[in-house]
Task: inverse folding
């Protein structure tokens, strides 16, 4: 892969309100790597990757994410504690403060784009205060060919100033950090935080509005891969459920690991040009593709290293949310371009710490919409202060923090596309079996891979009494047999050896689903409502 650069060319930022800046335009990944080290903002790991510390913030700050409320958004956005409104005049004043702050400074500018399908391409100009933030943009967004830069016209602009601190009393923010989307001005304004994920998720959030509202295309927080026969598989799942791991299949080409669109033409395209993977407990044995992608050109965030530059991936003393970003061509087995056709299977991944959901089950269209809107996984004891037993965690559409529209809008689009394309939808529990967290054990990765392979190969397709069992609490269709998986593993109840304890836990989780869904009931149709689990008799 050629690292296209226009290092000899420069541009003016005067029209953005940034005056007399020293503009470093379109520097190569290697140049940005070296400048970061020269400035003392990062060090090189023994793998060759750049290691940086993002500072005060090592993760997103969802309470400081805003959308400007204006004529485009006021009647469309689902306003609330996820999509927090921001005044347009306040945005203009804050933007002027940020651009004034960046004036006279050295800034790093990159032209890039999102959406691998040319029909949906979104050209982006990224303006960064720090060189490593600009290198992150190189990794994560799609990289134009050198010949494209002369005629490149950005549609959206990201202005990223981690060193700028807002004054909440004057600027209308909650605290000194902020990430604000303005759909009229087409600007993502980020300040007061060095966490690079805000750059990536800002554009993801923008596309989650633009694509369904203006392009009739479903945006998805998912990974995707394609088989030798051209069939596409889609994997939805929250952090820690196996989305990145399970989509990296040696027999299938990776389309992308996190953000995709599903078009009217029945194609699936990657939004991104790279991957942003969790690095906690990373090993070459468990996740070889990610581990081997950590080399020159990758950026490690908030990891702990020894004096030789060797990373201890088990060390969470800075954060549980250690990360690595790398361009997608660091993965060997990829689809080029990052587009798949003919979606045939959708997998909803959940790490059920209660240990009651089947390891694989087939969903009806109503159940699929219900579980998509619910977006369930579980937090396990010890991951957060005060959690001493599993806690259900719901994130609508498996990505609520990034969804500007009401979740049922995305669910209705998904339902329509599933029926139109005739896809199979599967719920995969990558969590616990034989009891809840602390009693049972995590379902073996080799079994989960075997179940997914069987689903992809069509080995689990025919549903009848002989081949499937209907779960008495969740109503899910559980296959009785699966190649490569012991039959007792397929029934979560049978692994417990304690029916009373199992059903008590199952109904407790069932009630959590129903309680969470109450806020969506008035928006959901009868088919979706019929996908709910059963109440305790």
Result:
């Amino acid at each position: 892969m050629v690292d296209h650069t226009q290092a000899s060319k420069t541009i003016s930022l005067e029209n953005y309100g940034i005056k007399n800046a020293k503009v470093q335009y379109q520097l190569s990944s290697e140049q940005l790597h070296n400048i970061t080290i020269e400035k003392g903002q990062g060090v090189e790991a023994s793998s060759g990757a750049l290691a940086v510390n993002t500072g005060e913030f090592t993760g997103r700050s969802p309470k400081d994410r805003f959308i400007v409320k204006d004529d485009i958004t006021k009647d469309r956005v689902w306003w609330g504690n996820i999509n927090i409104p921001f005044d347009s005049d306040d945005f203009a004043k804050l933007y002027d403060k940020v651009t004034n702050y960046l004036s006279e400074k050295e800034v790093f500018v990159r032209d890039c784009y999102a959406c691998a399908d040319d029909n949906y391409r979104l050209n982006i100009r990224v303006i960064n205060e720090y060189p490593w933030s600009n290198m992150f943009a190189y990794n994560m967004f799609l990289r134009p060919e050198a010949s494209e830069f002369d005629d490149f016209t950005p549609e959206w602009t990201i202005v990223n100033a981690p060193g700028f601190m807002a004054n909440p009393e004057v600027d209308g923010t909650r605290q000194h950090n902020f990430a604000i989307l303005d759909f009229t001005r087409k600007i993502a304004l980020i300040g007061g935080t060095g966490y690079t994920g805000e750059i990536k998720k800002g554009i993801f959030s923008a596309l989650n509005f633009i694509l369904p509202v203006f392009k009739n295309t479903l945006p998805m927080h998912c990974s995707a891969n394609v088989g030798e026969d051209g069939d596409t598989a889609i994997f939805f799942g929250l952090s820690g459920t196996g989305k990145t791991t399970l989509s990296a299949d040696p027999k299938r080409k990776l389309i992308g690991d996190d953000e995709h669109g599903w078009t009217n033409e029945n194609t699936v395209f990657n939004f991104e040009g790279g991957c942003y993977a969790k690095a906690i407990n990373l090993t070459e044995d468990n996740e070889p593709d990610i581990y081997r992608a950590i080399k020159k050109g990758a950026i490690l965030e908030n990891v702990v290293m020894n004096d030789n530059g060797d990373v201890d991936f088990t060390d969470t003393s800075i954060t549980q949310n250690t990360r690595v970003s790398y361009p997608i061509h660091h993965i060997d087995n990829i689809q080029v371009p990052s587009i798949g056709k003919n979606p045939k299977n959708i997998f909803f991944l959940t790490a059920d710490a209660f240990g009651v959901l089947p390891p694989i089950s087939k969903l009806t269209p109503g159940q699929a919409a219900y579980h998509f809107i619910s977006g369930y996984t579980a937090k396990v004891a010890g991951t957060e202060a005060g959690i001493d037993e599993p806690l259900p965690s719901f994130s609508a559409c498996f990505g609520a923090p990034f969804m500007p529209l009401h979740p049922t809008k995305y669910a209705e689009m998904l339902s329509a596309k599933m029926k139109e394309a005739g896809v199979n939808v599967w719920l995969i529990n990558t969590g616990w079996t034989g009891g809840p967290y602390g009693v049972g054990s995590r379902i073996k990765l080799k079994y989960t891979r075997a179940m997914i392979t069987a689903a992809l190969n069509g080995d689990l397709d025919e549903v009848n009494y002989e081949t499937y069992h209907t779960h008495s609490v969740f109503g899910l269709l559980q296959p009785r047999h699966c190649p490569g998986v012991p039959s007792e593993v397929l029934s979560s109840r049978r692994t417990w050896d304690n029916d009373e304890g199992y059903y008590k836990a199952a109904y407790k989780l069932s009630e959590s689903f129903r309680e969470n869904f109450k806020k969506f009931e008035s928006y959901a149709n009868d088919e979706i409502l019929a996908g709910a689990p059963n109440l305790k008799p």
